[in-house]
Specification:
Blueprint: E1 3-7, H1 9-16, H2 27-36, E2 41-45, H3 55-64, E3 69-73, H4 77-86, E4 90-93, H5 113-125, E5 130-134, H6 138-146, E6 151-155, H7 157-161, H8 165-184, E7 188-192, E8 211-214, H9 216-225, H10 227-239
Parallel strand pairs: 1-2, 1-8, 2-3, 3-4, 4-5, 5-6, 6-7, 7-8
The chain binds pyridoxine-5'-phosphate (PXP).
The site of pyridoxine-5'-phosphate has 19 residues, from strand 8 and helix 9.
Length: 241
């Protein structure tokens, strides 16, 4: 059975939409509710530009998350220092570009072999397991094993965005084949990015993924499933003014 780690970055995005003037919605509260709903882990991406998750969120979540805290981050010295201080249950290293809307592709482990090897070692020395976010590409999976990562997170973005069924099926088979290769290399296998309530169904019966990391589609659905009650509560307040 696969696990589900819930990414709460987009709750922070909504909070930051008012430029820090509001304390709500708090990703810490969202994480607690996600755990009540059965999340096996909580994921946050602390970006260099702090566009959504803030340092304060990560430090509070470390104290409040009852399941597992997974910190996504770039392999920079600043982030390595924070990770060693916070001590999440897993660090997922991702590439990061300032201009991107969201993480756009997997790490090029082959090209950045030495710096990633050093980052993995420094996290291991602090007792923190490391996952590398990579495209479904066998060379990147092999390189991930060679830098001593504990696991990979296979990028499902292209599969989710495929414009037709043939392409989607082809991209899905790349994911399952590279997941099998990762297993053979003794790597744990997570998957994520862009997965929604439809695309996740493709994985039925595959049994190759340890944990799915999902954020945007869950937060999007929560906005709609919570809308009726939120309006009712404000309407009742206004009627009773
Ligand atoms: N995994 C990684 C490495 C990511 O960068 C993201 C997006 O922050 C996710 C998973 C979750 O993607 P989504 O929000 O599209 O579900």
């Amino acid at each position: 059975m696969s696990a589900l780690a819930v990414n709460v970055d987009h709750v922070a995005t909504l909070r930051q939409a008012r430029g820090g003037a509001t304390k709500y919605p708090d990703p810490v509260h969202a994480a607690a509710l996600a755990e009540l709903g059965g999340a096996d882990g909580i994921v946050v991406h602390l970006r260099e530009d702090r566009r959504h998750i803030q340092d304060r969120d990560v430090y509070i979540l470390r104290k409040t998350v009852l399941s597992r805290l997974i910190l996504e981050m770039a392999a920079t010295q600043e982030m390595l220092n924070i990770a060693k201080d916070v001590r999440p249950d897993l660090v997922t290293l991702v590439p990061e570009k300032r201009q991107e809307l969201t993480t756009e592709g997997g790490l090029d482990v082959r090209s950045f072999f030495q710096s990633l090897e050093e980052a993995v070692k420094s996290l291991h020395d602090a007792g923190i397991p490391v996952s590398l976010f990579v495209d479904p590409d066998s060379e990147q999976i092999r390189a991930s094993a060679n830098v001593n990562a504990d696991m990979v997170e296979i990028h499902t973005g292209a599969f989710c965005e495929a414009k037709n069924e043939d392409k989607r099926k082809r991209l899905f088979s790349d994911i399952t084949e590279t997941a099998r290769l990762a297993r053979q290399l003794d790597l744990g296998v997570n998957a994520g990015h862009g997965l929604c309530y439809n695309t996740v169904k493709y994985f039925k019966g595959t049994r190759t993924i340890d944990e799915f990391s999902i954020g945007h589609s869950i937060v999007s659905r929560a906005v709609l499933t919570g809308m009726e009650q939120a309006v009712r509560e404000m309407r009742d307040l206004i009627r009773n003014l």
